[in-house]
Design brief:
Chain lengths: ~300, ~230, ~650
């Protein structure tokens, strides 16, 4: 793969609660030759709250970032966060399809948006540009013996007409990357079921039930870990795992990795660049089991 | 096992009941799930719906225009309700929201919890056999509810508002500030208190906001939106 | 010329928005119009008598009727003229109903437009010539394409009426979908018990020639005289020698071949006889899986066959049959349900189609009629049926109702209880469509007597619970709740779509098909088994989803049409055909190439190449006349002069 430079939109949570996702994404992209050119002075996309208030407002908040990205001159914007991606894509698509809507959005912006850049998830680029085969060749520490389930979350591939990537019901991109990294991927039937999303604060009961269901399924399949691609999913399953346990009278101890962390680990990148210490549920036993398996082999 | 897990208690210690914490507890009282008319006194639940006079045509047209969706395409197969991960928590299942829209029952729809609990996961949109973007319709109903002053799920709205206030002030979300503001808005002091000790030592919660240079530009987006509307 | 003009009221259909009296008054001033009047119903008996009287009284030699579409009544009025002694082509029709009164409300504007349309008709009629139909012989043999229950019915009815029948069947046996069924609704009688004898009749009937494992390769000719090329596909077994003993099937070592008759849930063999009652009961080799044909090794069947019937050298063979009529009875196929990833997309062995379930229920099926689920052979206790998988679903491009799934699902729920008394069936449905005789009673029985749980709502997803069962998550819209069922087996009522390659066959037969590949009937109400191509008829689900009684009825209906057609001494050809002006023709051959019916041939005329129209083949489409650079080919009754006269009539201003 030739070195390719993309505009990069990290998303707010990458600066805080999902800093390990941000860190490992950068580390993996660096290692496989994907240049990430951060959008200068990017701002929040508005996330779910903005589109629940108004679609024009939401598109304007995303639109500012699309405008800044367009000035960078790269052909595509990448973001690791599915929620940001949905907002950027929705804004771009809606503006491209409706001149009236575009005008309404531009009335809210300091600088009207003319060209609308393409947007993709980092996962899509890793899967399509790099691909599992090329990745497998770079693997230094195979995740041998690590049984994982892949959890894509609800909006990474849905709705299909908007996201235009992988399958909306049975996505396989992360599965393939994890397999290329040497992990054993168990068939997880709830790949795109919702974890409770942003209701953790205001209606935690919803998250307890939905994330509980996901953890229960992963646990009963015998997974050593869950692999995610979404900061909100990861937070609900990892940070709130204790809450889920007490609410559901359960005792899951499932590490919840960002897929970039495991890819980075397989590529042999230093732990510090992957933020493994930022995970709430201790990932060390799972990772140690890989080393142990390796020794046995 | 999930049948047993109905409505797990979500106050961490049990010391504080919801009524003590929420000033508007009375109005937020959980309506038993299956009443077709959320918020309606229970004696009126089986009230006859007058289909001659009650349909609000203006409302129906506005929802269709803003969402770009044709509500009459819905043939009530229930796939959205079957798909929706939140149906267990809804007071009106999403297929019935669509039905109420078809019959123009504005107040019933806008005073429901469901429209606030929808997390835009797009399961409904993805599986609708008639290609209706149901999640977008739900979004538009929240817009309408805000405009018309219906807020069944005050905490959900408070969270959204705190989030956007944070974006407006700093250009990006300041997570700690967002939580403080949410607690101030709702009086729910103990919200996620136990998570702090998990995050703080890992350096995942900043104490100071990151103010972007263009924060004024963001503020201006909000100002113009408020002035012009959409 | 003395022209009579009749303006029809069509009750209030036309008179409601057109001043017909005024139109007839205006028409009196048109050239050569000798008589004009308005009339209540021109097509009624008194209406037609009025026309005949006027022809006699006013010595008319041409008639214009302004009324409805010519598709409705042109033939009616041509007959009227004939009865009055005029040539039927000295008639023109102005459509002032569909083209005027039904589409506009302004009475004055409508009246003016109607008068203009009448003027066009008059101008055309002034240039009409009497035309005389030619007569030709009929070949009283009929081709039936497809050996399912509809084709079987059509073939037997024709054969019993003394006609020679050629039946072509794509598969190696006739019987179609019905042969795969265990029982039939609403009587729950054994499918093979009622179909089997009819299949045997096909094999034994002296008037029927059966080509199984064959396809129609090409069709030429015209009503009464079709020539059909039939491809007999290589089956690598000499069927004249094969006795159907089945020893080869038992010994064949290639066991990965799909068993298409068992809908791929039973074990397959590269050499196979589909089922014990197959007609013809002959072995066929699946070349894709045969070890000898793919790798050159094996040949076990060849060694073992007691009658030396195996022939690895066999090739496809094309034969020609001459027939006078064709019945298309190609049936349907099942929608490829694997696009429903939310139901597993084919990943879960215990999610099967209704037709597969039918094989599990059938005594001749892979489990000998004991219901065992594919994954582990366990007898299922909770069986979930999901309706409308690939029906009434725009998101997968299948918005139509497949019609009979509600009924067979009720039947399968009943049979499940019969097979497994301690089982429960759950049926997720949107609406129950049971409008046939005893049908609704039947679905009620499934619920009332057999305890089937009917749940009104679609299913969102089916997934394994990790403990060996499937979770079916759906909605009960009547309760207004999400529901889940722990299922041992999930049966999908997969929708009906047109048989594979239907459009290609339709093009060979020169008949129309709809956007889903179903063949178009001649008229949705009045010509349900005719097509718009003379001599080609439809039977069964190739025209649209149909259950067994409807397919059988249409099979008989198509047969009666063929018998009616063949009961005539001779057929008359439509004289509205193309005609070459030999002086102007330069022999460029463009018309020969462009004619979709192969109705123009090149002939030698005093050393010059010239085009010549075969009148009985020409369908009068007019493509040749618009292609001819010299204007040498004219379509009779639609000549350039006639059409230009109409244009001028309407563009006078």
């Amino acid at each position: 793969m030739t070195k390719h430079t993309y505009s990069y939109y990290p998303g707010c949570s990458g600066q805080g609660t999902s800093m390990e996702y941000e860190r490992s994404t950068r580390a993996v992209c660096e290692a496989v030759g994907i240049n990430l050119d951060e959008i200068p002075d990017w701002s929040c996309c508005g996330s779910t709250p903005a589109h629940t208030v108004d679609h024009t407002l939401s598109a304007a908040l995303s639109g500012r970032n699309l405008g800044l990205a367009a000035k960078q001159g790269h052909d595509c914007v990448l973001t690791p966060c599915p929620s940001c991606l949905t907002n950027l894509k929705t804004a771009g698509k809606h503006m491209a399809e409706s001149e009236t809507f575009k005008e309404k959005v531009n009335r809210l912006l300091d600088e009207p948006l003319e060209t609308i850049p393409d947007t993709k998830s980092v996962l899509q680029v890793l899967f399509e540009d790099l691909g599992p085969d090329a990745l497998a060749k770079k693997v230094a520490r195979p995740l041998k013996g690590l049984k994982v389930v892949t959890y894509y979350g609800c909006i990474l591939t849905r709705p299909p007409g908007l996201m235009d990537f992988d399958s909306e019901e049975n996505p396989i991109s992360m599965d393939k990357l994890m397999q290329a990294a040497g992990a054993e991927v168990l068939q997880f039937p709830l790949k795109t079921e919702c974890c409770g999303a942003s209701h953790g604060v205001a209606r935690r009961d919803l998250v307890m039930r939905l994330s509980g269901k996901l953890l229960d399924m992963a646990d009963s399949l015998g997974a050593d870990a869950v692999v995610t691609a979404c900061p909100l999913c990861q937070m609900n399953l990892d940070l709130r795992q204790g809450q889920v346990n007490s609410a559901n009278n359960a005792s899951y101890r499932l590490p919840i990795f960002y897929y970039t962390q495991l890819l980075g680990w397989a590529l042999g990148l230093p732990d510090a660049s992957l933020g493994l210490d930022k995970l709430c549920v201790d990932p060390r036993p799972a990772l140690q089991s890989i080393s142990a398996n390796k020794e046995v082999a | 096992m999930y049948q047993e897990l109905q409505r797990a208690p979500h106050t961490p210690s049990g010391l504080f009941t919801r009524a003590q914490n929420i000033p508007f507890a009375a109005s937020r009282q959980q309506t038993p799930n299956r009443l077709p008319y959320a918020g309606m006194p229970s004696g009126d639940v089986m009230q006859v719906v007058n289909l001659t006079n009650s349909p609000d045509k203006t409302f129906m047209d506005r929802v269709m225009e803003e969402s770009g969706q044709t509500i009459s395409l819905c043939y009530q197969c229930g796939n959205c309700t079957a798909s929706c991960p939140y149906t267990f928590g809804f007071d009106i299942p999403v297929s019935q929201v669509m039905r109420l829209l078809q019959t123009g029952q504005k107040e019933t729809v806008l005073s429901s919890s469901s429209i606030w609990l929808c997390a835009s996961c797009t399961s409904c949109t993805t599986r609708c056999p008639n290609n209706i973007d149901v999640a977008k319709v739900m979004d538009v109903l929240r817009h309408e509810a805000r405009r018309e002053g219906f807020v069944k799920e005050r905490r959900v709205k408070a969270f959204f508002d705190s989030f956007l206030d944070s974006v407006r002030s700093h250009g990006r979300v300041f997570e700690m500030g967002l939580m403080v503001d949410y607690i101030r808005k709702t009086g729910r002091f103990w919200t996620d208190m136990e998570l702090g000790p998990k995050m703080l030592p890992k350096g995942k919660l900043a104490f100071k906001p990151h103010n972007i240079q263009g924060r004024d530009a963001i503020a201006r987006i909000f100002e113009r939106f408020e002035k012009e509307g959409s | 010329m003395r022209i009579g003009v009749f303006i029809c009221h069509c009750g209030s259909n036309i008179e409601g928005t057109v001043d017909t009296a005024e139109v007839s008054r205006i028409a009196r001033d048109y050239p050569e119009v000798a008589f004009a009047t308005d009339t209540m119903y021109a097509c009624s008996e008194p209406g037609q008598d009025g026309i005949i009287e006027a022809i006699g009284e006013h010595k008319l030699d041409g008639v214009v009727v302004a009324s409805c579409t010519p598709r409705m009544h042109e033939a009616t009025f041509r007959n009227t003229l004939e009865r009055a002694g005029l040539n039927p082509y000295m008639f023109e029709m102005a459509n002032i109903r569909e083209h005027v009164s039904w589409i506009g409300k302004d009475r004055e504007a409508n009246t003016n437009k109607a008068a203009d349309l009448v003027r066009m008709a008059v101008e055309k009629l002034r240039r009409n010539q009497p035309l005389i139909a030619k007569e030709f012989d009929i070949n009283r043999r009929v081709l039936v394409i497809g050996g399912g229950v509809a084709g079987i019915q059509a073939a037997l009815d024709c054969a019993d009426a003394g006609l020679e029948v050629v039946m072509v069947e794509r598969e190696s046996t006739i019987g179609g979908k019905m042969a795969k069924l265990d029982k039939t609704f609403p009587t729950v009688d054994c499918s093979s018990c009622i179909l089997g004898p009819r299949m045997v009749e096909i094999a034994q009937h002296p008037n029927i020639t059966l080509y199984a494992c064959s396809e129609v390769d090409g069709v030429s000719g015209y009503v009464g005289n079709f020539s059909v090329k039939i491809k007999k596909k290589a089956r690598y077994v000499d069927w004249d020698k094969c006795t159907g003993c089945g020893e080869c099937v038992e010994k064949c070592p290639s066991r990965k071949a799909p068993n298409t008759f068992d809908e791929k849930i039973g074990p397959g063999r590269a050499i196979n006889i589909p089922f014990p009652q197959a007609i013809p009961k002959k072995a066929t080799i699946n070349a894709e899986y045969c070890i000898k044909l793919t790798k050159g090794k094996c040949g076990t069947c060849e060694k073992i066959c007691p009658s030396n019937a195996i022939d690895f050298q066999q090739q496809d063979e094309i034969i020609t049959e001459e027939v006078g009529a064709v019945v298309a009875a190609t049936g349907y196929d099942l929608f490829d349900w694997t696009v429903y990833e939310e139901y597993g997309g084919g990943r879960y062995p215990d999610v099967i189609t209704s037709l597969q379930y039918e094989r599990l229920l059938s005594a001749s099926g892979p489990t000998g009629g004991h219901v065992k689920r594919p994954s582990d052979g366990k007898e299922p206790k909770n069986v979930v049926f999901i309706q409308c998988v690939g029906s009434r679903d725009k998101s997968v491009g299948r918005p139509y109702c497949s019609g009979f799934c509600c009924m067979y699902t009720a039947k399968q729920a009943i049979l499940t209880k019969d097979h497994i008394p301690d089982s429960t069936s759950y049926v997720f449905y949107m609406d129950i469509r049971a409008p046939g005789k005893l049908y609704d009673e039947f679905t009620r029985r499934a619920m009332e007597e057999y305890g089937a749980q009917y749940i009104r709502g679609r299913v969102a997803m089916v997934y394994p619970d990790g403990k060996g069962n499937m979770i079916v998550r759906g909605a009960d819209t009547l309760m207004g709740r999400q529901v889940e069922v722990q299922a041992d087996l999930v049966v999908l009522a997969v929708g009906v779509e047109s048989a594979k390659n239907s459009p290609q066959l339709a093009e060979k037969l020169r008949i129309s098909y709809d956007s889903y590949g179903f063949f178009m009937e001649g008229h949705p109400k009045l010509k349900p088994c005719e097509t718009n191509t003379a001599g080609v008829y439809l039977a069964g689900a190739c025209q649209g989803p149909k259950d067994i009684p409807a397919s059988v009825a249409q099979g008989s209906a198509a047969a009666s049409k063929v018998i009616g057609l063949f009961s005539k001494e001779k057929l008359k050809s439509d004289p509205q055909t193309a005609n070459v002006d030999i002086k102007r023709c330069i022999g460029c051959g463009k018309c020969v190439l462009t004619c979709p019916f192969g109705a123009i041939k090149e002939v030698d005329f005093r050393g010059q190449p010239k085009a010549e129209v075969i009148e009985t083949v020409c369908q009068g489409c007019g493509i040749c006349s618009s292609t001819c650079p010299q204007g040498a080919i004219q379509l009779r009754h639609f000549t350039d002069n006639q059409i230009l006269a109409e244009v001028e009539a309407i563009c006078r201003f």
